[in-house]
């Protein structure tokens, strides 16, 4: 730093030795004449408030003589960015140096370069400037650089702040500014603070994380402190900083750590134009030397901060080095610069008129009226040695609200005068340099005051502390025409409504009043204040004006809504989706809740949210749901998204209430009942399976299952089943039972089962089982030659029997009667599987017939099948018996003795076919006086007897034979005796026997026999038809 200061002193002394150049706002060294050939911006249209590159072309007419250096002042509206850069020769080697300040640039050519480059020396330099004209519209502007005027179009910068312009707090940040002149960076660390600053007596520590490989600390850190706020030219309110005395903070850790205790803000003691705050705001400033001379261009650094009771943090800042280049020279003449300075409390920048006269050797060389504005210097032409100038200002009289003091000209040595007379001479040491003359004018605004008072409307009866005061803020906009700067302030209005004076207001200012947010009252909100009038144009008579500020305090109210959701598998059982929720809150005076409250609200599940309004903000509300029992379901614990919450002003708190209704279960039980003829055959250990199923219902899917019951009558109970399920019951096929058959149908009682809520439905399953029975039928058929001998309705006696089986006992022989007409007699209810044996008792004897042993179609022993009928046919054969007849021969007549010994007679017999036999015939030889018996002849046969004519006996004639009976019916095993008498008569004396008479008799007998035979056949045929 010391080296830089020494360099600048040497540079100033060098420049002081030169004479002023003419017409270009550039100062040059002795013996070297410089020409500013051109000044230009990079573009012809530039925005106000922007950074622009300015390029200056220069040349040295004639020969250049050391030293060659030039300082060019910037015209009003342009401000240079501090910079330092080399002047390069055509080979790119440094040949000089330029230093840029806020209002000028100084470039010096290296003396070694000048020697040997004296002829036609020229060059250029480019550097950055900020344009700040303050124009509100686009305008053409000419920047006057003396001999060079640069016309450009200047567009206005964006409008100043009009909304939310008040300071609302400082963020923690670090920023850096690179100083090209000495390759240093100024780091500024802003400590975070609220809109009212950091409260007094708060410990603060800020420590720079210095990278000693890149930076070297220059001097001690310094602290900026703000205890009030003010508005800048853009209408933004910012902290009003001032350097804090070093004795009020401590530096440690080699200069990298600063510790301090915050102080109270100015509050109401803030000067006019500022707004006091309760606390203070701080920035800590470090200056560091960049060790690489700016080679890196971009730099970064971090600082940490800690605030007692408010935490700590870190902030990182960056800095960038930018630069330019060029050369410049000047000539040895005297010049002066007249700079207008305004003092006082106005913002007027009017154009002032100054009468200017220059004389040389008694001759007026220049005479005119100069127009000049504050901050815009007037630069004279080159003034020849011996020239005397006089300056005399015409005092302004406008505007009427401003009082102008007498003008004061101030020379560089501090000499002041109302009228200036100055001669350029060696004795006055003002040759070869620019004499800077200041023209000061003081303008004073006229001031006035007015009053303000507070009215509070508190219809809700909120508790306002008696010492509460209200801050009435006021501000006015700048009025350049009247010289009024933007300003403002604040006053405190007491709660009791007494008048407070608002003093020192600029006459002519249009003052707007607003109120800062009053001190908060728990549970209430201040409504927007009503200020009447809210705008006042200050005049000399404003003392009679009173601004009435009315504040209305209303209780803060909030609300909540409950959105009901019903869930769970039993949700469908709820008929009425309306639920009752009770709410309550206790008194909490510290939050403005002076009394407790309670209520209830109806909430509809799946419907719109139920809203409870007009609740005091700050109340801590607790919710409780009242649930009615629902058959078939059990309520789970209600789930509130927030069961207890605090009411928020103008906010509706959304509460989700979820209820889960779990589906209850029930049961059914079953008991087995077995009836029917086969019930006794079912083992008690047998089990039966009931299959059940149910369709989907409210809260449950379709399902199925099985329940096993025992034949012993014990009760079986199902697993839990969903409430409301309607069961369809079915029985799986029962286990087989020996000797019995289950009926196809079974009965459930009740037939429909609906599962209840925790109950058990009792079901009786009844199965009928029938003993397996069969039957047999017995038919009687009589056949054989003697079958006709018995009547068809005659009954025959049989016995049937069977031994014991697995499911039945032995049956002893049991009689049954079967008619002989072929109709079947059925014996039912015979146990299936029984081996039945049928036995026929011997039938009663039949006259004319003999019974043979019975025979059966299959067998008289058979197995009866279930539900089957065994048909048995018993066949009895009745064979026709036989009988006989015998013929005993008797001889009579007078000639009987004539019959030869051994004579035989032949008897013919014949019988027609009868029932059970065919027709038959035969002959029977009978000895005289003998008996002959026939062979067997069918019982009932009707036999006709005839005798074959005996052989003739000499000496006698046979008479017609006489049978004791010539037609006989054969009996049953009997012999019918027939006597055949033959008469042999001796002929009468004198007559010869011719045998004719015998022949006639034989013919007669033969005809009779034929008639009788025909009659027997007719009778037999009639019997067969019958």
Topology of this structure?
Layout: H1 2-16, E1 26-28, E2 35-41, E3 45-47, E4 51-59, E5 69-73, E6 78-80, E7 83-88, E8 94-100, E9 104-109, H2 111-114, E10 122-131, E11 139-144, E12 149-155, E13 173-179, E14 184-190, E15 203-209, E16 215-231, E17 237-243, E18 249-252, E19 257-261, E20 275-290, E21 298-307, E22 311-320, E23 335-344, E24 352-360, E25 363-372, E26 378-379, E27 388-394, E28 402-404, E29 408-410, E30 416-417, E31 419-423, E32 434-445, E33 447-457, E34 469-476, E35 487-494, E36 500-506, E37 510-515, E38 524-526, E39 530-532, E40 535-537, E41 546-555, E42 557-567, E43 578-585, E44 597-604, E45 610-616, E46 620-626, E47 633-635, E48 639-640, E49 644-646, E50 652-663, E51 665-675, E52 687-694, E53 703-710, E54 715-717, E55 721-722, E56 726-731, E57 740-749, E58 753-754, E59 760-771, E60 773-783, E61 795-802, E62 811-819, E63 825-831, E64 835-840, E65 849-851, E66 855-856, E67 861-863, E68 869-880, E69 882-892, E70 904-911, E71 920-927, E72 931-933, E73 937-938, E74 942-947, E75 957-958, E76 962-963, E77 967-969, E78 975-985, ...
Parallel strand pairs: 3-12, 23-32, 33-41, 42-50, 51-59, 60-68, 69-78
Antiparallel strand pairs: 1-5, 2-4, 4-10, 5-9, 6-10, 7-8, 8-9, 11-12, 13-14, 14-20, 15-19, 15-21, 16-17, 16-20, 18-19, 21-22, 23-26, 24-25, 24-27, 27-31, 28-32, 29-30, 29-32, 33-36, 34-35, 34-37, 37-40, 38-41, 39-41, 42-45, 43-44, 43-46, 46-49, 47-50, 48-50, 51-54, 51-55, 52-53, 52-56, 56-58, ...
């Amino acid at each position: 730093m010391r080296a830089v200061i020494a360099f600048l002193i040497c540079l100033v002394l060098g420049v002081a030795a030169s004479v002023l150049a003419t017409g270009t706002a550039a100062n040059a060294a002795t013996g070297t004449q410089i020409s500013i050939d051109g000044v230009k911006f990079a573009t012809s249209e530039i925005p106000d408030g922007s950074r622009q590159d300015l390029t200056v072309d220069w040349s040295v007419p004639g020969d250049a003589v050391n030293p060659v250096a030039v300082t060019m002042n910037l015209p009003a509206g342009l401000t240079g960015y501090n910079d330092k850069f080399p002047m390069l020769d055509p080979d790119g080697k440094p040949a000089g140096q330029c230093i840029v300040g806020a209002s000028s640039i100084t470039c010096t050519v290296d003396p070694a370069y000048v020697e040997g480059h004296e002829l036609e020396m020229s060059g250029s330099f480019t550097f950055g400037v900020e344009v700040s004209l303050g124009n509100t519209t686009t305008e053409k502007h000419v920047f006057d650089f003396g001999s060079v005027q640069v016309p450009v179009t200047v567009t206005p910068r964006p409008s100043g702040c009009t909304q939310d312009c008040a300071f609302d707090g400082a963020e923690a940040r670090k920023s850096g500014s690179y100083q090209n002149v000495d390759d240093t960076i100024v780091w500024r660390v802003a400590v975070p603070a609220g809109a009212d600053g950091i409260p007094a007596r708060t410990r603060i520590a800020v420590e720079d994380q210095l990278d000693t490989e890149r930076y070297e600390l220059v001097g001690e850190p310094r602290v900026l402190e703000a205890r009030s706020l003010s508005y800048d030219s853009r209408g933004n309110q910012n902290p009003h900083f001032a350097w804090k005395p070093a004795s009020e903070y401590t530096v440690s850790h080699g200069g990298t750590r600063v510790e301090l205790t915050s102080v109270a803000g100015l509050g109401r003691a803030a000067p006019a134009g500022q707004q006091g705050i309760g606390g203070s705001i701080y920035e800590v400033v470090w200056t560091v030397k960049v060790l690489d001379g700016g080679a890196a261009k971009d730099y970064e650094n971090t600082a940490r901060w800690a605030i007692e009771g408010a935490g700590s943090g870190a902030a990182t800042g960056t800095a960038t080095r930018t630069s330019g280049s060029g050369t410049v020279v000047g000539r040895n003449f005297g010049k002066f610069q007249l700079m207008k300075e305004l003092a006082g409390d106005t913002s007027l920048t009017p154009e002032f008129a100054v009468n200017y006269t220059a004389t040389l050797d008694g001759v007026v060389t220049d005479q005119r009226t100069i127009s000049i504005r504050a901050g815009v210097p007037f630069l004279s032409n080159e003034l020849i040695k011996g020239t005397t100038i006089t300056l005399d200002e015409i005092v302004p009289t406008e505007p009427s609200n401003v009082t102008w003091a007498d003008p004061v000209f101030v020379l560089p040595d501090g000499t002041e005068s109302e009228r200036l007379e100055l001669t350029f001479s060696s004795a006055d040491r003002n040759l070869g340099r620019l004499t800077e003359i200041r023209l000061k004018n003081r303008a004073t605004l006229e001031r006035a005051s007015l009053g303000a008072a507070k009215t509070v409307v508190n219809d809700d009866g909120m508790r306002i502390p008696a010492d509460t005061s209200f801050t009435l803020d006021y501000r006015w906009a700048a009025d350049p025409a009247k010289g009024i700067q933007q300003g403002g302030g604040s006053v405190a209005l007491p709660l009791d409504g007494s008048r407070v004076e608002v003093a020192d207001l600029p006459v002519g200012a249009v003052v707007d009043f607003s109120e800062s947010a009053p001190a908060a009252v728990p549970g209430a909100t201040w409504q927007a204040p009503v200020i009447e009038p809210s705008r006042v144009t200050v005049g000399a008579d404003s003392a009679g004006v009173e601004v009435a500020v009315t504040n209305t305090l209303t209780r803060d109210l909030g609300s909540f809504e409950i959105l009901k959701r019903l869930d769970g598998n039993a949700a469908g059982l709820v008929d009425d989706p309306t639920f009752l929720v009770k709410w309550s809150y206790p008194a909490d005076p510290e939050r403005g809740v002076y009394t407790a409250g309670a209520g209830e609200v109806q909430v509809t599940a799946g419907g719109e949210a139920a809203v409870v309004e007009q609740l005091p903000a700050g109340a801590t509300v607790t919710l409780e749901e009242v649930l009615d029992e629902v058959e078939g379901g059990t309520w789970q614990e209600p789930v509130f998204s927030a069961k207890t919450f605090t009411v928020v002003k103008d906010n509706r708190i959304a509460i989700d209430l979820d209820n889960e209704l779990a589906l209850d279960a029930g049961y059914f039980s079953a008991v087995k009942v077995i009836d029917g003829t086969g019930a006794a055959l079912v083992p008690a250990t047998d089990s039966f399976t009931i299959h059940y199923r149910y369709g989907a219902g409210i809260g449950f899917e379709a399902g199925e299952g099985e329940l096993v019951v025992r034949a012993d009558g014990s009760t079986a109970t199902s697993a839990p089943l969903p409430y409301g399920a309607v069961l369809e019951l079915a029985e799986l096929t029962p286990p087989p039972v020996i000797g019995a058959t289950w009926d196809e149908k079974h009965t459930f009682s009740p037939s429909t089962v609906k599962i209840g809520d925790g109950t058990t439905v009792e079901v009786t399953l009844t199965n009928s089982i029938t003993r397996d029975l069969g039957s047999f039928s017995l038919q009687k058929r009589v056949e054989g030659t003697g079958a006709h001998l018995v009547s068809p309705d005659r009954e025959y006696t049989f016995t049937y029997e069977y031994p014991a089986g697995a499911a039945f006992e032995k049956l002893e022989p049991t009689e049954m009667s079967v008619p002989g007409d072929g109709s079947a007699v059925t014996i039912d209810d015979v146990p299936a599987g029984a081996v039945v044996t049928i036995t026929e008792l011997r039938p009663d004897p039949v006259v004319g017939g003999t019974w043979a042993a019975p025979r059966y179609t299959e067998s008289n022993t058979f197995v009866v099948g279930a539900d089957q009928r065994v048909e048995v046919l018993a066949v009895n054969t009745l064979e026709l018996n036989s009988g006989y007849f015998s013929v005993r021969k008797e001889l009579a007549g007078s000639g009987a003795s004539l019959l030869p010994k051994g004579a035989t007679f032949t008897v013919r017999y014949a019988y027609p076919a009868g029932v059970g036999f065919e027709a038959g015939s035969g002959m029977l030889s009978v000895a005289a006086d003998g008996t002959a018996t026939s062979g067997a002849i069918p019982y009932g046969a009707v036999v006709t007897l005839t005798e074959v004519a005996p052989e003739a006996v000499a000496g006698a004639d046979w008479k017609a034979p006489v049978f004791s009976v010539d037609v006989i019916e054969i009996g049953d095993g009997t012999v019918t005796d027939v006597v055949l008498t033959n008469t042999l008569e001796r002929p009468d004396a004198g007559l010869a026997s011719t045998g004719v008479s015998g022949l006639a008799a034989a013919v007669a007998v033969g005809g009779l026999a034929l008639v009788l035979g025909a009659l027997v056949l007719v009778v037999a045929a009639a019997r067969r038809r019958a």
